[in-house]
Amino acid sequence: NAGVTQTPKFQVLKTGQSMTLQCAQDMNHEYMSWYRQDPGMGLRLIHYSVGAGITDQGEVPNGYNVSRSTTEDFPLRLLSAAPSQTSVYFCASSNGQGGTDTQYFGPGTRLTVL
Amino acid sequence: EDQVTQSPEALRLQEGESSSLNCSYTVSGLRGLFWYRQDPGKGPEFLFTLYSAGEEKEKERLKATLTKKESFLHITAPKPEDSATYLCAVHPARGGKFQFGAGTQVVVTP
Hints:
The structure holds two protein chains of two kinds.
Chain A: E1 4-7, E2 10-13, E3 19-25, E4 31-38, E5 42-51, E6 54-57, E7 64-66, E8 76-78, E9 87-94, E10 104-105, E11 109-113
Parallel strand pairs in A: 2-11
Antiparallel strand pairs in A: 1-3, 3-8, 4-5, 4-9, 5-6, 7-8, 9-10, 9-11
Chain B: E1 3-7, E2 10-14, E3 19-26, E4 30-38, E5 45-50, E6 56-59, E7 62-66, E8 70-75, E9 84-92, E10 99-100, E11 104-109
Parallel strand pairs in B: 2-11
Antiparallel strand pairs in B: 1-3, 3-8, 4-5, 4-9, 6-7, 7-8, 9-10, 9-11
């Protein structure tokens, strides 16, 4: 199993550009989530999904869109990038409804918005 | 509002010098408390899940404990390879939104 994979590993955008961060898992997990990690602030939940076709907002959803058309994939879209979105982005997945099950994290995408 | 606070922010230890990290939380019902280890440039790596007060779990030099308001991660006789940032997260009973603390950065010197 590859676990949770994320692409790209690094990305530089200009303000106003759009892009999609890819996340895939091969563990047949129902629950998937996106976090951003900024210095001194820990991991903050952006969006999450409890299964294909079901998504919900986390703590910091503004400026980001998600969809979940398959169990395996959970892409994160930045519609119009802003410097405040410079961060490291992590995707995670877990079994069940994400209640008592462990979340497994991908390696992260480091995004810089100029 | 759910809140997770970790202390200290940073910890510098000599090899063999045992210490404890604290994770205090305020949630309306707890489904689970999680400890992760994160190395620079990598994603968090799962260490432990604790579900109820009084529960303890151990892995090598690490031991996690849980009370109704806080969790401790004890590092016994640490080695330089234990250097990492340790993250605590809670999953409230009412929803699917995990809440992470800011982490404790641990440096163990030979």
